Amino acid sequence: MIPFLDLKKINQRFDKEFENAIKAVFESGWYVMGEQGKAFEREFAAYCGTKYAVGCANGLDALRLIIKAYGFGAGDEIIAPANTYIASILAITDNGCTPVLVEPNLETYNIDVEKIESHITPKTKAIMVVHLYGRAVEMHKVWELAQKYQLKVIEDSAQAHGAIYQDKRAGNLGDASGFSFYPGKNLGALGDAGCVTTNDENLAHKIRALANYGSHKKYENIYAGLNSRLDEIQAAILRIKLKALDADNQRRKEIAKYYTQHITNPRITLPHIDDEKGNVWHIFPILTKNRTKLQEFLSQHQIQTLIHYPIPPHKQECYPMYHHFSLPITERIHEEILSLPMSPVMSDKEVQEVIKILNAF
Ligand SMILES: *Cc1c(COP(=O)(O)O)cnc(C)c1O
């Protein structure tokens, strides 16, 4: 069986280091908001090239906290890609804001930057870009629009740890960025974790308070905040895995290159490989009109695939008010997309096997 993502194998590489780190936290007697968290924030900010990183409980909270810190709420609109993972949209609606959904570009699967401007209204407060599947968004146009209309740029970098656009890493491409360290992400903890990166000192300061009941000083609450903190054990784990992130992303790029060079089945549309640095291949998505059959065929041959994502946000049961939207490109992607096995611990043999079976379909 070739798994879609072998998390156990990924983490077993750090077996001894994890054991020591967890034991050290255990023995320190300090489990939340301590030295490990601070050190991880320093190291992750340095990695992204930002001045600040603020740990929190998960990626959804990171995005919720950014929007909350800016004070956006009812009546405010935030532009977002229509084909994103639901969490991007939940962060917007949870704050009472209205998501304005923009179709993706079929070459990149990211928000079609040429279609953003026509969606900007006097109510627009921010553009949320999502570096989907690991590919950095074409930011140039986004920056231009943000400047022209005085909008904030919020990045959802939950799938793009280490992706680069014009020499800057995801997390340092907007006013503030949300990261997830959910176990399956390119940088994943042993449970839930997240953080916000930014160069804005006031914003970082406010988010730190918001994530801690709205408080800087114990029992004094400036804001009606949340409890969304990064715990010490997860921070210690993330510090170890951060050191391996670039090598892991490099292996993903190798696999992606190999897939694109050797999958020749005409019934399969491969993702574009353009800028080597711009994509850390969180997911390797293909398009096919025969998805159900292909997925069954692969499964019969012991290859596990997943669909990212089977239902787009505007068709979800929780958003009946968006069901009537016409987003044909998004809907086509959701009907045809299939994610192949992709991970830093896949062997060459496994990659070759996936290619062989795909070409035999
Ligand atoms: C995983 C993910 C999130 C949410 O992260 P969690 O840590 O699971 O809350 C947000 N946006 C995108 C694009 C994601 O892939």
Sheet with the most strands: spatial strand order: 1-9-8-5-4-2-3
Low-confidence stretches: none
Distance between the termini: 18 Å
**Computed structural class:** alpha/beta
Per-chain topology:
Layout lengths: L6 H6 L2 H14 L6 H14 L3 E5 L2 H12 L6 E5 L4 H9 L3 E5 L21 E7 L8 H11 L2 E5 L7 E2 L2 E2 L6 E5 L13 E5 L2 H10 L4 E3 L2 E2 L10 H11 L2 H18 L21 E4 L3 H10 L27 H9 E4 L7 H13 L1
Parallel strand pairs: 2-3, 2-4, 4-5, 5-8
Antiparallel strand pairs: 1-9, 6-7, 8-9, 10-11, 12-13
Helix pairs in contact: 2-8, 3-8, 4-5, 4-7, 9-12
The structure holds pyridoxal-5'-phosphate.
Pyridoxal-5'-phosphate (PLP) binds next to helix 4 and helix 5.
Please characterize this protein's 3D structure.
The chain is an alpha/beta fold and about 350 residues long. It is built from 12 helices and 13 strands. It has a 7-stranded mixed sheet with strand order 1-9-8-5-4-2-3, sandwiched between helices. Strands 6-7 form a two-stranded antiparallel sheet. A hairpin with a 2-residue loop joins strand 10 and strand 11. Helix 2 packs antiparallel against helix 8 and helix 9 packs parallel to helix 12. The two termini are about 20 Å apart. The model has no long low-confidence stretch (mean pLDDT about 95). It binds pyridoxal-5'-phosphate (PLP). Pyridoxal-5'-phosphate binds next to helix 4 and helix 5. The site of pyridoxal-5'-phosphate has 15 residues, from helix 4 and helix 5.
